[in-house]
Description:
The complex is a heterodimer of chains A (179) and B (235).
Chain A: E1 39-47, E2 58-63, E3 77-81, E4 87-93, E5 98-99, E6 105-106, E7 109-115, E8 123-129, H1 139-143, E9 153-158, E10 161-163, E11 166-167, E12 177-178
Parallel strand pairs in A: 1-10, 1-11, 8-9
Antiparallel strand pairs in A: 1-4, 2-3, 2-7, 5-6, 7-8, 9-10
Chain B: E1 36-37, H1 42-45, E2 63-64, E3 67-68, E4 73-82, E5 92-96, E6 122-126, E7 132-138, E8 143-144, E9 152-153, E10 156-162, E11 170-175, H2 194-198, E12 203-204, E13 215-218, E14 221-223
Amino acid sequence: MSAATPSQTAGPYWHLIDFPEWADLLREDGPNAGLAGERILLTGRVTDGDGAPCPDVMVELWQAGPDGEYGGAFHGFGRCATDAEGRFRFVTLRPGPVRGRGNAVQAPHVTLSLFARGLLRQLVTRLYFAGEPLNETDPVLSAAEPERRATLIAQPAGGGEWRLDIRLQGEGETVFLEV
Amino acid sequence: MSDPAGYRLPAPGTQPPYDAPDYGSTRRRHPTRPLLRVPHTPTEVSAPRMDPARYPPHADLSKLEGREGLGERIIVAGRVLDEEGRPVRGAMVEVWQANAAGRYHHPGDTHDAPLDPNFRGQGRVFADAEGRYRFTTIRPGAYPWRNHHNAWRPVHIHFSLFGAGFAQRLITQMYFPGDPLLPLDPIFNSIPDPAARQRLVARFDLDVTEPEWALGYRFDIVLRGREATPMEDAA
């Protein structure tokens, strides 16, 4: 048995593996074209410990389909480069509730991973949806400190858009997960 | 249905910290609050199926539209395994790198070194049933990066890997043996355990080398393994 290979930063030039169309999981020629579900936009802004935008982050998305399954028809993977203002934007379908450990049910959520210059390992967090009744009993939300829970919950911004900003450090620091 | 077996946490010292004072960019980007430990659920143990039909392979970076890039042609080959030594079949491996002069095909790279119109520096391959992958490229050059006085990155190729579980997702860098910049590099040396660090250094391999064609380097990658199967699954 040998230990896992160490992680290293993606650095500032990872855009060589940026394929902007991957941020649209519902793209016409993509793996989810024509699948039924509630179309949503997930947007947000990544900022650092000074509150400055992070314009060079690779954000990856991983989520279940509307049926709550990861291995089903829905291909729940996306990648998006943050822009000059640190903003990301995904087009996807709203996921369903996902099975948890034991008999628990996890509230609908999307996993976001951040890779960037200055991150020697990825940072992982989750995006939940405000107003979702299952949030009250979700194991991860329940484990987060109550005063920081809001950093995991996207708010509706109209027209199917859900917004969640990500703060890497300092006041309002996002709850990041050890997975 | 029983709970899925989760992935093991890394052995102490084998992964870099978020806060690495010698690497300046970590200063305002590392979280200051402890990470929240999440017991693994289908969210963490599942992963996207990266189908080569949708993510077309590109295994020869050494030329662009048939025209040869400049520099020393090399072959990089290895296996993608888990911590139990089992092949991670179908793992998608993305790579990107600077050209032979140490310049990235990227608008953000302002290093005063020539771009090569016949070298882009991006590739994608898939591990086979034994976990083997292989690509051909040009040996990249070192480049300066302003982290500290006279800072130069050792020669490296960036690797991005998708395993069978989301918790196995890995981005790393492959280095070259004998590079005099390695002992000076804060990114390489951010990994506390020297033995773990050395696993990022490829080794020259005459068996990968092709006569009259290209030198070969071997770089094996190990993704996280799973914890013991939960008791309720035991026979």
